[in-house]
Write a structure and sequence with these properties.
Blueprint: H1 13-18, E1 33-36, E2 52-55, H2 61-69, E3 78-82, H3 87-97, H4 104-124, E4 129-136, E5 151-158, E6 163-164, H5 170-176, E7 185-186, E8 192-196, E9 208-209, E10 220-227
Parallel strand pairs: 1-2
Antiparallel strand pairs: 2-8, 3-4, 4-10, 5-8, 5-10, 6-7, 6-9
Helix pairs in contact: 3-4
């Protein structure tokens, strides 16, 4: 197994959660859903009765301020297929190209993405990880759906977070879509979710959606990690 390194944010969580202006919306736990307080805890997704694991965390206030103040046009929009040990080497040049100025906060972003990639690879026993770090300012994936994957990891660094539905209300949400008025859960700011898709087995798959953004003027920075598939980009290779 790959060792899962602690991210710098691990050591700032207690401080950040107590600072003014830091808000964490707690998801209502229900059947098949677990909440954990460490990166390592995400591995509980491998338990047969678990469909969704939420790592409830707070990033440092200085990072929140930095990411929220960035010009939306400089936010990354990229996809790479990479081995965990090469994440930094692959990601840094792409951040340079998009105009994201080097500094401590950018380093924290790179480290956090790297830690999540390493953890996801270890938990899913994957040599390669399909990494999407995307700038979203429209109604992308706004429909309630189950992903056609075995497992997926998501977190939002900026903007509204991913919404999901308790299993008891999942079919109603999928059928009714925009008219669904049942209970709707939302990840807390910067929370990390690891969930099963419908390829994990019969009756698997958390129903979720990206929050509709059209007309709001908001821009998300969204991270999505998947196992390698036939639609993944070509593997990243050192120049």
């Amino acid at each position: 197994m790959r060792p899962v390194r602690k991210s710098p944010v691990d050591f700032s969580m207690a401080q950040a959660s107590q600072e003014p202006g830091v808000h964490r919306q707690a998801a209502a736990l229900t059947a098949g859903v677990r909440a954990v307080d460490t990166l390592d805890g995400l591995a509980t997704i491998n338990e047969p009765d678990t469909e969704l694991v939420i790592w409830r965390r707070s990033l440092p206030a200085c990072f929140r301020d930095w990411i929220d103040r960035l010009d939306a046009e400089t936010l990354p929009h990229l996809r790479i297929l990479v081995q965990p040990g090469d994440l930094r080497s692959a990601l840094v040049p792409l951040l340079d190209k998009c105009g994201l100025v080097p500094g401590d906060m950018r380093d924290l972003l790179v480290q956090d993405v790297g830690d999540l990639v390493s953890a996801f690879a270890d938990i899913t026993r994957s040599d390669w990880v399909d990494v999407r770090l995307e700038r979203v300012d429209h109604d992308a994936c706004w429909k309630f759906h189950r992903d056609t994957v075995e497992a997926r990891l998501v977190t939002t660094y900026r903007g509204p977070t991913t919404e999901w539905v308790q299993m008891a209300h999942a079919e109603k949400a999928v059928a009714e879509q925009r008219s669904f008025d049942g209970p709707l859960q939302r990840l807390g700011d910067h929370d990390v979710a690891l969930f099963k898709g419908n390829r994990a087995g019969p009756n698997s798959g958390i129903v979720h959606r990206s929050p509709p953004l059209a007309g709001t003027g908001l821009t998300r920075l969204f991270l999505c990690l998947n196992k390698r598939t036939v639609v993944s980009p070509d593997p990243w290779a050192k120049a």
